[in-house]
Amino acid sequence: MKSSKFLSKLVTKQLLTFPLQKSVKRRSNEGFREQVRKFSIFQTWKESLALAILCTLASAIPVWAAEKLYLTYGPLKLSVSVASLETFAKEGKINKDLEFYLRNATPQQQAQFRKALLERADLDPLVVARFFNTEIGEDILSKIGKFITIERGSNGKYALRGALVQAALDPQGLTLLNFLQKLPTNMQFRGELMLNAAKAAEKAILATEMSIEEMKKLTAMEATTEPPVDFSAMPDLRKPGEYDVKKETWLLNDESRKREFYVDVYKPHRWRAGKTPVIIFSHGLASRPEDFSEDAKHLSSYGYVVALPQHPGSDTQQAKALLEGYAREVFDVDEFVNRPKDISYVIDELERRNQSEFAGQLNLESVGVGGHSFGGYTALGVAGAQIDFEHLEQECNGQFSGLNISLLLQCRALTLPNQVYNFRDDRVSAVFAINPVNSSIFGPKGLSKIQIPVSIGAGTYDPATPLVFEQVRSFVWLTAPNKYLTAVEGQAHVDFPNSMRKLATRSPR
After folding, report:
1. How far apart are CA 84 and CA 96, in angstroms?
2. Regarding beta strands 187-190 and 148-150, do their DSSP bridges make them parallel or antiparallel, or are they unpaired?
3. Any idea which of 160-174, 427-441, 453-467, 480-494 has the lowest mean pLDDT?
4. Could you tell me the strand order of the sheet in which 305-309 lies?
5. C-alpha distances in angstroms, 368 versus 242, 311, 501?
6. Are 343 and 369 in contact (CB under 8 A)?
7. Which sequence spans correspond to the domains of the chain?
8. 241-504 maps to which CATH number?
9. Which of 102, 152, 383, 465 is the one with CA 20 to 30 A from 85?
10. pTM of the predicted protein model
11. What is the largest CA-CA distance in the chain?
């Protein structure tokens, strides 16, 4: 789908300046709205607890404990005692100060709230401690702490962390009630800010729904204006191709960067007529080449050579090192630079081996590059997109930047030296990026540098790289003469194999 006029108006009108994993079956728009509500309410609470537990096990145990929780809205300041919440949770009794909040709640809603107060979250304190020693972990706490402050209005991240530490280590386990009881001081919930955030989230949901509906209309319209296609006379790309495939794993060493990494290479046993096309695919954060093995094998069965490089510093090995205490960050910030360079180095290696191992058959003057999530950033980088630090800083400092979860990753790039990074590789002639992390770090200025064909894939239920923030905006900002946007209904973030397979067929032959 190439039309962008409506999408441009839509983003401008609906989002204004607001930036917004498990397989999900296809649902209606109402299902999407319910899915997002569940994610933003239930998951945000439960995962916030999971993600905000421990910065260190050595955190000091507070001497004081919170007696009251406050809800503020402008000059209005309401309170409820922690003791009343405990009485309600354990006995079902509603004290006078709690009655104000529950007087309009149905018995069923009261029962649900009581259950929520006592529901236990089983978490590994050591694992979460290590996560919250990372920059991303600190960022999450800071974002939550803007909404839940200490009584006098300071960011509540340290108080929240202290309470979560104690609650997680308590024999009773981490519950909402236990967490509230462990708060070291009275806390206030900033109602006005929370309401504005809810409105921003609702606007993002509406923009997503409208984008999906308009894309359906544009797709139907283009289908009627294009010449009819007899798909029955074409190969069924869902089935394997005619070429047998073999896999090799190469260990590469880029001495200029002191960087070693492996690459899985899939190639047909025999060559197709003419030059053999080459595809390189970049995995996402905390992922690995092996996660794409079936897709690479399938594509290679049609006569392609497919290379899947590892990106050390942002792969599964880095994630494992973090969990085991051998790494301090979710990913190495230098990965913003190293990942695109890994792609170019793989092409260099293919050139070195072309004559000796591929009989000179490889077409390395027109390479296709794809990627998923952080790999989508990588693909767009070698296509010519450049980091726009000014735009990124504005996005990261936005009041409701937490709505776009991918900013947790993108904003880390602000710690890089502020200079021009040119990752463009002229041997790359087309790219496809699935669920790419990209819009804030590149922005309109950075994405306008891409002048080769680019295809962007999105999932309508993707909370990690939301369609309306990370793909629709990017598509509008692209100035490449050939650009395509594909949205897969029901796709979240990691259930992407079918999406990749569809998009891969558009790469250069």
Report:
1. 8
2. antiparallel
3. 160-174
4. 245-254, 259-268, 305-309, 278-282, 367-372, 428-434, 454-459, 483-488
5. 21, 18, 14
6. yes
7. 36-194, 241-504
8. 3.40.50.1820
9. 152
10. 0.80
11. 84
- Return the sign of the alpha-carbon dihedral for residues 486, 488, 493, 495: negative
As a whole number, mean pLDDT of residues 45-66 equals 40
Task: Tabulate helix, strand, coil % of the chain (nearest 5).
Answer: 50, 15, 35
Contact 438, 470 (CB under 8 A): yes
From the list 409, 473, 416, the residue with the least C-alpha distance to 446 is 473
Q: How confident is the model at residue 64 (pLDDT cuts 50, 70, 90)?
A: low
C-alpha 295/C-alpha 428 separation (Å) is: 20
Strand order in the sheet with 148-150: 76-81, 68-73, 187-190, 148-150
**Could you give phi then psi for residue 42, rounded to 5 degrees?**
-65, -50
% of the chain with per-residue pLDDT over 70: 84
Residue 209 binned pLDDT confidence (cut-offs 50, 70, 90): confident
Question: Distance between CA atoms of 130 and 475, rounded to whole angstroms?
Answer: 37
Structure tokens at 31: 């299902």
- pLDDT given for residue 121 in this prediction: 87
Give the bridge partners for 399, in sequence order: none
User: Amino acid identity, residue 302?
Assistant: Y
Q: What is the mean pLDDT of the chain?
A: 84
Q: What are phi and psi of 225, to 5 degrees?
A: -95, -20
- Token pair for 315: 């792969």
Least confident of 60-64, 121-125, 318-322: 60-64
- DSSP letters for 204-228: HHHHHHHHHHHHHHHHHHHHHHSPP
Secondary structure (3-state) at 123: coil
Alpha carbon distance 364, 247 (integer Å): 19
Q: Among residues 428, 495, 405, 496, which one has the least CA distance to residue 36?
A: 405
Question: Quick check: 167 pLDDT over 80?
Answer: yes
Half-sphere exposure of 399 (CA within 13 A, CB side): 14
Ordered DSSP codes for 393-415: HHHHT-TTGGGSTTHHHHGGGGG
pLDDT of 336: 98
Tokens of 291: 């996660």
The amino acid sitting at 51 is L
- 9-20 pLDDT per residue, tens: 444 343 333 333
